[in-house]
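pinned: reference chain
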Amino acid sequence: MEYAEVIRRRRMVRHYADRPLSPDVVDRILASALRAPSAGFSQGWAFLALTKPQDRARFWPYVPTRVAQTPTMQHAPLVVVPLAHKAAYLARYAEADKGWADRSEARWPAPYWYIDTGMAALMMLLTAVDEGLGACFFGIMRVAGDDLDPVVDVPAHTAAFKAEFGIPDEYSPIGGICIGYRADDLPPQAPTVAARRRDAATVIHHGQWNAT
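pinned: its structure tokens
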């Protein structure tokens, strides 16, 4: 698929056919994440890939709101959880060629461990489209005020998820990605999406913010 077509076709797909993926496809999607850029080539990320039905069954209870709203997401044969590793960045920039020996987070203008892991996630989203598949990125959380969990304790929820899958403490999940074949009856994109899409003139500022 041409790159421009991959970009045009990328959308969050929440309805999947109950159809398996070949191991080769799964490997290509996961490998694409490793081509994402990272500050100092720190590569402070890891990826939990869930392909076995029993492992995916353990995952979905941690996103109950998502399941309640779009249960067909559970048909996706691949779930990937990108994990950010802050310590890798602090250690890399304490090396001699960087010289931030104090490893202070205050030196960082933004948390690049999350940014870079997000870019790795986008690589997988785009590769899924190139493979003729659909994909969706979503948060691993409960929503406050719903019938499932009226009180949200985000750290406790994250800790429980990490304990379920044996994820080390120093790794932080930034969300989940489900990937698979689009459902045959996939509903069309809501017209409100096109209506809400901001055009280039409203978000791109040439030279200066208020330049005319």
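why pinned: The longest helix spans residues 112-130. The chain has a mean pLDDT of 91.
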